[in-house]
Structures are given as C-alpha cells and as structure tokens.
Design a protein that fits this description.
Blueprint lengths: L2 E7 L3 H13 L5 E5 L34 E4 L3 E5 L4 E4 L4 E9 L3 E3 L9 E3 L3 H13 L2 E5 L3 H12 L3 E6 L11 H13 L2 E5 L2 E8 L2 E8 L4 E7 L1 E4 L3 E3 L2 H5 L8 E2 L11 E3 L4 E5 L4 E3 L4 H15 L11 E6 L2 E7 L6 E8 L3 E8 L2 E8 L5 H9 L6 H4 L6
Parallel strand pairs: 1-2, 1-6, 2-3, 6-18, 8-15, 9-10, 9-15, 10-11, 17-19
Antiparallel strand pairs: 4-5, 5-6, 7-16, 12-13, 13-14, 19-20, 21-22, 22-25, 23-24, 24-25
Helix pairs in contact: 1-6
Length: 397
C-alpha cells in the first residue's frame, strides 16, 4: 500500500509542474503520481503544432524534478476516500496520501457514432496514430473548427495532405474571433488547400474497405452528402474530469472549485489545470482554462502550496496558436459574443482585437503581435470605462 506525502492524480503538464513546485519547497518529501497514459509527462502543444513542422519527437518529454516522483503509469484512479486519505486505482492498488492534487484534466467530447474510427486528438498516442495514417493516406477529414480542429487541419495541409474541415458554425474559430476575422480564416484556409465546409454537420461515419465515409448534412440547404477519407480527426472540446471530486463530495461547478491557494473544499485536496475552476480578480469571475500557460503556472503554484508555501493564484493565463504562417496570443475573456474593437495595422494579418463588456476590456487578441501579453493583462485589470477610440493604438505599448 504506497504511502506518499504528496499524491498527484494525473500525468500531464500540470502534474509535472506540480512536482517541480513541490521540489521548490520540499526536497525530500515522497511524491507519487497516478497517470492514465503509459507515457511519462510530456508537452502537449507540439502534438498539433511543432511536431508537424519538423520538431524532433524527443523534444516533447518534460525534464523530471529531482528527486523524481514515483510514477504509476497506465493506471486510472477509480475511488477517492477523502476522510481516510486514500485513492484506489483500476488495478486495486490503494495509495495513502497526506496531500492530494487532482490534475485530472478533461476527456474529449465524443460524437454518438463512429466509435474508435474517429481520432479525438488529445494525447501522444493520438498523434502517433494520426502520423501513422499519414504515411499511407492522402485525404483527411477534420471535424471541428475550434482550437484543435484548426491546428490539426493546418498541420496536415502543411504536410501535403488533402484536408476537408467541417464544422456547424459559420466560420473557423467563430466562438472566439469576430465574424469578419472568422470569415477571413475560411478563405485563408481555402487558399492553403483546405476544403472548408462551414455550416455543415457530420451525422455519421462508416467504414468502407480501408476508407472512412462521413455522412454530412447542411441545415441551411437541407441537403446531405458523403466524404471519403483515409483518416478522421475530431476536435470538439473536452469535459473536465470531475468524477473523483464529486465522489468525494468536493464542490464542483464547471470544474473543481478551488480557492486562491488552489485548495478544494477539502483542505488536504488541491486541484489545478484544465479541471480547476478558479476566481480571477481582474475579471471578477470564476474561470476554467484549458491551455498550457494555465497548466504550467497553476500546477507549479499548487505544488508549492501543497508543500506549505503561501500562494495566491491571481494570474490571468494566456493561450496561443499557429495557423499556417499566422499566429496569435490571447489573454482574458476572448469571446465573440462580446463587443469587439479591432485595431489592424494590416487587416487580418497584424493587429489587436479588444473584447469589451460594459466599457471594460475583458480580453485581448494579439494577432501576429508579440510580447504584449503583460501589457494586455494590465489593460484588462484597469476599470475603464473605455470607448473604441480609447483603444486605437493602445497596444502594442
């Protein structure tokens, strides 16, 4: 029965950052990690970005803290007994802890058809499976025009593949980007040899020989069709893995609710990363953020907090993406439903988009504009009120 000073459930970037955070404070305490994947912690963003641009595979593995944690890989935590501080995995092993971190991440939304024929792109194994298909296949279908779908479609096209990108919304990234920028991306992807099927739903996926056939439906035209592909990828969002937390009676509200010290409603249990819902003082609301910056920053602070250091997570995390030769960084509440003010140096090629509610800047999109994230955070923290004219030329600072 393994007994650890610190036990971490989850084997991703957040968990690895937490181990480093613990070692910042405590160089001797025992650390155990339960990870569902068979791989040690790795950087997830290169799976849909750098590895398709020639970055070496070995570069994704994260460097272990010293002394390292004991890794229990290929195992899934099934039960959490918070009263007795015990976690039991799917092989029946019981782990005892003093402090516990839930870094359980999220599980991809799945379509009600297609089964395992569809790659729900999230893990290293998903990357390897898709990469193997590209060695033989030429035509790939990508379902979803959001963060993952847009990156995977671009990555495949840059590797000489024929790509069909399908999504029910009007434009790529339409939940994040203003409508005109989203429409521009539709055309931009088409110019880069991606067939963009906006407003089209996938209603079924079948196997025919060595190919997959997608059945589609366009609600606007009332017509459907079929698309044959050598591989099918879906990126349609994730659901936070809160089962253990709910089982233990922790407070859950679109994620595991944590305080500024990243403690859950049980003082011996912490949460961080994709699964954690935290209050951000600059925005005055609770957030759950599914991106690298949050995973690494929150994970490290959670580890420090577990080891006894006083921390306060008042950080506003950023995120970024690469789409062919375009790139962006964003911070705050970047939501297309908000009022937007665009300040283009070159339309759709370089500029800043501000997202406002009630005269306050809630989010900033830096489109091919770099090294301005900290300035954007300061702007979001300002009370305003701001008019559109106040924001012209405000960033880059």
């Amino acid at each position: 029965m393994p007994n650890y000073t610190y036990l971490i459930v989850g084997g991703g970037m957040t968990a690895d950052a937490a181990i480093h955070g613990i070692r910042d404070v405590d160089s001797t305490g025992s650390i155990g990690l339960i990870g569902a994947e068979s791989h040690p912690p790795y950087n997830r963003p290169p799976l849909s970005k750098g590895l398709w641009k020639g970055k070496p595979l070995e570069s994704i593995w994260r460097k272990s803290a010293q002394p390292p944690a004991q890794l229990h890989l290929g195992r899934t935590a099934r039960t959490l007994d918070a009263r007795n501080r015990r976690v039991t995995d799917d092989q029946g092993t019981v782990y005892i802890y003093d402090k516990l971190l839930l870094a359980t991440g999220g599980t991809p939304h799945r379509l009600p058809f297609g089964g395992d024929d569809i790659i729900y792109f999230r893990t290293f194994d998903d990357y390897q499976r898709l990469r193997a298909l590209t060695e033989k296949g030429q035509h790939f279908a990508v379902i979803g025009g959001g963060f993952i779908g847009s990156e995977v479609a671009a990555a495949l096209a840059m590797n000489g593949k024929q790509v069909t990108l399908l999504f029910p919304e009007a434009g790529i990234g339409s939940r994040v980007f203003p409508a005109d920028l989203s429409r521009f991306l539709n055309d931009y992807y088409r110019q880069n040899n991606v067939e963009v099927r906006a407003g089209e739903q996938v209603v079924g996926v079948d196997r025919r020989g060595n190919q997959y056939v997608l059945r589609t439906y366009n609600p606007q035209s009332g017509s459907g069709g079929e698309i044959a592909a050598d591989g099918v990828v879906a990126g349609i969002g994730i659901v936070p893995n809160v089962d253990l937390a709910q089982q233990a009676g922790l407070q859950v509200d679109n994620g595991i609710v944590v305080d500024a010290a990243l403690r859950s409603s049980d003082p011996n249990i912490y949460a961080a990363g994709d699964v954690a819902a935290f209050h951000n003082p600059a925005l005055g609301c609770r957030l759950r953020v599914e991106h690298e910056d949050n995973a690494l920053t929150m994970g490290r602070l959670a580890g420090q907090a577990m080891a006894g250091r006083a921390v306060s997570y008042d950080y506003l995390p950023s995120f970024y993406s690469d789409l062919f030769d375009l790139g962006y960084e964003a911070v705050g509440e970047v939501d297309a439903r908000l009022e937007t003010v665009a300040d283009w140096k070159q339309p759709y090629r370089e500029g800043v988009v501000y997202y406002l509610r009630d005269g306050r800047v809630r989010g900033v999109l830096l489109w091919n504009v770099w090294e301005q994230v900290d300035a954007a955070r300061k702007l979001i923290a300002e009370p305003g009120p701001f008019r559109s004219t106040d924001l012209k030329g405000r960033l880059p600072a």
